[in-house]
Amino acid sequence: MSDASSSQVWSPSGWKDGQAFDPMSIAEADAGEASSISAARRFILPGVPNAHSHAFQRAMAGMAERLGDPDDSFWTWRERMYAFAALIEPDDLYAIASQLYLEMLEAGYTQVCEFQYLHHAPDGSRYDDPAAMSRALLQAAADVGIGITLLPVLYQTGGFDARPLSARQRRFGCATDEYLGMLQGLREHLAANQRLGLCLHSLRAVPESAMREVLFGRETGMPVHIHIAEQIAEVEECQAVRGQRPVAWLLDHAEVDADWSLVHATHLDELEVIRLARSGATVALCPTTEANLGDGLFPLSAYQSAGGTWSIGSDSHISVSPVEELRWLEYGQRLTQRRRNLASRPDRPSTGEALFAAAWSGGRRSCGLSDDFDSAGGDWLVLDHDAPPLVGAKADDVLDRWIFSGNRPLVREVWTQAQPRVISGRHIHREAVEARFALHMNRLLQRM
Ligand SMILES: [Zn+2]
Prior knowledge:
This protein has helices at about 25-30, 75-85, 90-105, 130-145, 175-185, 210-215, 230-240, 245-255, 270-280, 285-290, 300-305, 320-335, 350-365, 395-405, 430-445; strands at about 10, 15, 45, 50-55, 110-115, 145-150, 195, 200, 225-230, 260-265, 280-285, 310, 380-385, 410-415, 420-425, 425. By secondary structure, the protein is an alpha/beta fold. It has one domain: Alpha-Beta Barrel (TIM Barrel), CATH 3.20.20.140. The strands form three sheets. The protein has a seven-stranded mixed beta sheet with strand order 2-1-3-13-14-15-16. A five-stranded parallel beta sheet has the order 8-9-10-11-12. Strands 4-5-6-7 form a four-stranded parallel beta sheet. Helix 3 runs parallel beside helix 4 (about 130-145), helix 3 packs across helix 15 (about 430-445) and helix 13 (about 350-365) packs across helix 14 (about 395-405). The site of zinc ion (ZN) has 6 residues, from loops. The site of zinc ion has 6 residues, from loops.
């Protein structure tokens, strides 16, 4: 361990003296004037990947927290979400996503997997550019400087019984050929630090034949994402129609491997836990959204014991903070098991570090990026070592103190592609992005 005046860099094998490995020296050489922000002593961490996002939902965060139906649930929330989604056009989506991605960077997320199903105009008609909504997201990510894995979503049916899409779902729907054509067309619009993945909305929204067609001939290394087993009603409907629980059915009917991310996977039986862990897939967990929607609790301890990989996502964006996702992931387990430090392991006794290490490597996989630390350069965050929660911290304490000491933002700098995006806790374009967001939000709220 180095003396207190030098930088220290976290890697999956532990903290290292920044003199031996100093990404900032490379970044600062590229960044010119920004080198003046360099401080003598810093705690440097790789950026956190956000494995699950629906950007448009950022604009309705906090607007579905009043009792409407006495039986309020995920399904009544979904009706409100659909009503809001019906208002959003490509320029609104660009403004909302820019604001969201800026907030992600300020919180320490440097990559996002964007699960994008708002394809068409609100009445289902096609935009002149059929991928206008997806391109708004790519542009927003490029402009604020977050890496993105865009996941255009295949969405075809309104339930396991193959009922047609409702009026409000019509803008999500694509025939399989149309979907594959959109994906192909988007390839030529990818900028640096942008990737494409395949995405099935859920088993209830994708018939088996369409799933097979989309997955046929998929390239190794291309991410595949799907929502699965988030709700008990979904599990029961899958059992009734397909004769199996959703995760068991998927493992039996698709070649689920390390390219796959199963989003939520909340409701698993014991055998599904083991089979899913062994498949090599990543489970994308969204603890704050899962709590907000009353989904249920993922069996993290059993899944980790079986060797399973997981990542975190902010999903509906009722919180945009890797700290809060990781803290509530651990707290959910503590509350149900009445024990402490459940994500830690004998070789990694720090719970904060165990959580961060798992979320980093699983998140990289969800993004379709290597989780080999030495080839993962470019995305870094620097914590504010002067902030009260980190006073006197040793490197080995830093992750526990960051994650478990409250809500004061401790991210001081964020770099992606060796460029500074956040300086002194503020995104370099915060004023302009916030002003555009306010303009579009006010317009949207008038239309509600
Ligand atoms: Zn989702």
